[in-house]
Amino acid sequence: MAPIYDRVALIGLGLIASSMAHAMKAGGLAGEIVGYAKTEETRKVALEIGICDRVCTSAAEAVEGADLVVLAVPVGAMGELAEEIAPHLKPGATVTDVGSVKQAVIEAVSPHIPEGVAFVPGHPLAGTEYSGPRSGFATLFKNRWCLLTPCEKSTLEATARLRSLWEAMGSNVDEMDAPHHDLVLAVVSHTPHLIAYTMVGVADHLRRVSNSEVIKYSASGFRDFTRIAASDPTMWRDVFLTNKEATLDILGRFTEELFALQRAIRLGDGEHLHAYFTKTRAIRRGIIEAGQDTSAPDFGRAADVKAGD
Ligand code: NAP
């Protein structure tokens, strides 16, 4: 396949950027990949494992001559970086980002985008609980959604080209406006992460159940919370600081539902509990039918993996 962009600059070289680099290299989608990350250690690793053809010691230097610039840093760092790179962007270039929140990123980045440069915000709905340059892999985006949220600084041409890159990396692409994106993500990702963080925190506080028991018997459900609650603290701090309203809205609804279930348990209202769990089971079936998870028992884990492993 002919490269979609001659030169791509990756700003931030963690899980998402390194996965993009692997996918672009596997598909021949970029002529050259240039990278920049905050610490020398990450830049060194990026060169060593070959995710970048070149690394630079500043973001400004990395974006020189790039046709596509990808901001792949925590959401709270995007505005400052956009300001730094703005005078160095090539006319006709596209800037995109992969941040998990969109409205706050648009507000932080857009004002710095110069005339003649397009900004097309994006968010791949794909990830793991690992971070850093070594955690990426080429198939991370395969059959996962990537949401583009075009804004005032986007052009149709730049959006179409970026869409073709994500499709070539294996993603399905949808477009929506940024506030809607933030609400959808508050439901499917941000609030569930907060609940997982809380559940794991609660277990830690509960002195009547020993730590070794929690770990030993974790396959009963707790283990799946711990995977989510192991996600990067900086990334998730920024998500909650920047998607405040939508997360608080969904958390409010969650609390109401939780109280209703708590009441049903206290009153012994089995009918309520059964009806509720029947409804949620149908949602799980819908996710499997949409190809977003496997129907194998225990989330597809190998049958020989025992509780406590
Ligand atoms: P990550 O693995 O923790 O990597 C973050 C990278 O950003 C690191 O290379 C870090 O450099 C660099 N960085 C941080 N602050 C910087 C700054 N001020 N200037 C330059 N580089 C800086 O993170 P990630 O998981 O790839 O996440 C990146 C973005 O993707 C975030 O906005 C996140 O919301 C979004 N996202 C994440 C997921 C997920 O599941 N992880 C999924 C979709 C979208 P050093 O290593 O040198 O510190």
Total helical elements? 12
Sequence of strands across the biggest β-sheet = 3-2-1-4-5-6-7-8
Bound small molecules, by name, code or SMILES, are:
NADP nicotinamide-adenine-dinucleotide phosphate
Q: N-to-C terminal Cα separation, in Å?
A: 43 Å
Low-pLDDT segments: 303-309
Order of helices and strands: EHEHEHEHEHEEHEHHHHHH
Number of strands: 8
Query: Could you give a short account of the major beta sheet?
Result: 8 strands, mixed
Shape label = elongated
What would a concise description of this structure say?
By secondary structure, the protein is α/β, with parallel strands linked by helices.
Fold topology:
Blueprint: E1 5-11, H1 15-27, E2 30-36, H2 40-48, E3 54-55, H3 59-63, E4 68-71, H4 78-85, E5 94-97, H5 103-109, E6 118-124, E7 145-148, H6 156-168, E8 172-175, H7 178-205, H8 211-216, H9 222-228, H10 233-242, H11 244-267, H12 270-289
Parallel strand pairs: 1-2, 1-4, 2-3, 4-5, 5-6, 7-8
Antiparallel strand pairs: 6-7
The chain binds NADP nicotinamide-adenine-dinucleotide phosphate (NAP).
Describe the model.
It is a single chain. The protein has helices at residues 15-27, 40-48, 59-63, 78-85, 103-109, 156-168, 178-205, 211-216, 222-228, 233-242, 244-267, 270-289; strands spanning 5-11, 30-36, 54-55, 68-71, 94-97, 118-124, 145-148, 172-175. With 309 residues, it is α/β, with parallel strands linked by helices. The protein has two domains: 5-176, NAD(P)-binding Rossmann-like Domain (Rossmann fold, 3-Layer(aba) Sandwich), CATH 3.40.50; 180-289, 6-phosphogluconate dehydrogenase C-terminal like domain (6-phosphogluconate dehydrogenase C-terminal fold), CATH 1.10.3660.10. An eight-stranded mixed sheet has the order 3-2-1-4-5-6-7-8, with helices on both faces. It starts with a strand and ends in a 20-residue tail after the last helix. Bound molecules: NADP nicotinamide-adenine-dinucleotide phosphate. NADP nicotinamide-adenine-dinucleotide phosphate (NAP) is lined by residues 12-17, 37-39, 42, 72-75, 77, 81, 98-100, 123-124, 127, 131-132, 232, 235. NADP nicotinamide-adenine-dinucleotide phosphate is lined by residues 12-17, 37-39, 42, 72-75, 77, 81, 98-100, 123-124, 127, 131-132, 232, 235.
